[in-house]
Structures are given as structure tokens and as C-alpha cells.
Amino acid sequence: MALVDLIRPEVIKVPLVSSTKPEVIRELVEVLRDAGKISDVDLVYDALMKRESLGSTGLEQGIAVPHAKTPAVNSLTVALGISPKGIDFQAIDGEASKLFFLLLAPPDQSGPHIEALADIARLTKSQAFFRTLASATTPDEVVELFTED
Fold first, then answer.
1. Which tens digit of pLDDT belongs to each residue from 54-70?
2. Phi, psi (5° rounding) for residue 30?
């Protein structure tokens, strides 16, 4: 299943209200809970924070991809958050992160997780797409950006 198939209004938070890394992760986990996508908020949050302790998932150019494997999901699950002003996510380039793709996968599934990371890398290579996505103001607008040809 392609990343674009997982991007739905109910798993998008725009704008994020958080201002720190732990708050962003908690906020996106709660989005997934509210959408009925995860079974255990604390288990998911702890798995994500444990992964972050190994090294920040803040990439370059304003993108962060917090991710973890957890039995709290049955298949690849994604939440997307946008912070127009940016949040310090200890990114590789030292810049604030604006786009957050939170990925969860069951412990026994590697393929979809890796494919989603590759999809994110491809999508965000376009600076125009990144700027347009980072300035989106509604979940429906985000979905529309992902589904345009």
C-alpha cells in the first residue's frame, strides 16, 4: 500500500499546537488514537520515544519522520502533522521541522515501513511540494496535495 493511500483527513493535524519533540509525538499519537488506528497510546508513545533516544528522526529541510515498530498496530499506520512555524526536533541540519510523518508498523513487517520512508523521501525532494504542503491549512487540503497527479 502506497503512502498516499494512508493519508486521510482523520490522520492529519494542521496546525500542530505542540512546541517540543515529546509534545509533537504525543499529539500525533493522539490523532491516531482518535482515528481508531492504534490500540494503546502509551505503548506507541513509549516505542516512538525509545526510537528517538537512539537518534533523532529529524531529517533535513524541515522534515521529521518519527517511526517505530509496535504491536499496537496491525499494518502500516501514518499520521501527518504540520507546524507552520517549525519545532526543534534535533534535525540533522539543525533547522526547525515543519512536516512530521509519524510511521508505525507491526514488529513483523519491514517492507511497508521501508517503502513509506522511500515515498516520503521522493515526495519531499520537490521544494515546491514541500512549501505548498507546509503552508496547507486544512486536512482536506493536505489530502488533495497528495492525490493530485
1. 999 998 889 999 999 99
2. -70, -35
Chain segment 97-118, per-residue pLDDT in tens:
999 999 999 998 877 778 888 8
Label each residue of 74-128 as H, E or C.
CCCEEEEEEEEEEECCCCCCCCCEEEEEEEEECCCCCHHHHHHHHHHHHHCCCHH
Residues contacting residue 105 through CB under 8 Å, at least 6 positions apart: 67, 68, 69, 70, 73, 75, 76, 77, 112, 113
Q: How far is CA 129 from CA 33, 99, 112, in A?
A: 28, 12, 23
Selecting among 67, 76, 103, 143, the annotated active-site residue is 67
Determine whether 113 is an active site residue.
no
